[in-house]
Q: What sequence folds into this?
């Protein structure tokens, strides 16, 4: 799947998900279009998967039936 991104110099492009991860980590983009929400995500302000902190609460997934 290709995802639309906006670079820091305001150019737009389409990139694959691996490239998106790299661009987010390197801070080369300012935002990207989240396809399933049809919404622009601001990299500096919006929550992005995998960028959370360490969870120290109880593990709630153990023992759950699938």
A:
């Amino acid at each position: 799947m290709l995802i639309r991104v906006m670079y820091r110099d305001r150019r737009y492009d389409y990139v694959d998900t691996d490239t998106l991860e790299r661009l987010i980590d390197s801070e080369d983009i300012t935002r990207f279009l989240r396809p399933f929400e049809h919404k622009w995500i601001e990299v500096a302000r919006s929550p992005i998967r995998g960028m959370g902190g360490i969870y120290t609460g109880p593990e709630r997934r153990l023992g759950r039936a699938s």
